[in-house]
Design a protein that fits this description.
The chain is mostly loops. The protein has a domain at 10-43. It contains no helices and two strands. The chain has strands at 21-23, 29-31. It has a two-stranded antiparallel sheet with strand order 1-2. It is elongated.
Length: 70
């Protein structure tokens, strides 16, 4: 049984999608695991799919009554 990945198999590591990513009181991004500022993905990277924001939905085309006539 194979599980389907939410965003595909080829996800490039990014600290914003890491389980240990958080922002401190100053608004700076910090790794909870290493207590260092993020920027380069470390060896403790753990992907968290819930941190990804979905893409915007495409706009629906507007149809007229003439589009549905035969």
């Amino acid at each position: 049984m194979s599980l389907k990945k939410l965003f595909g198999k080829n996800i490039t590591p990014d600290c914003e999608y890491c389980l240990y990513y958080q922002k401190n009181a100053n608004g700076q991004a910090v790794c909870r695991r290493n207590s260092r500022f993020v920027g380069k993905v470390c060896g403790r990277y753990a992907y968290d799919p819930l941190k990804r924001e979905p893409r915007a939905t495409p706009a629906m085309p507007e149809f007229t009554a003439d589009d549905f006539k035969l």
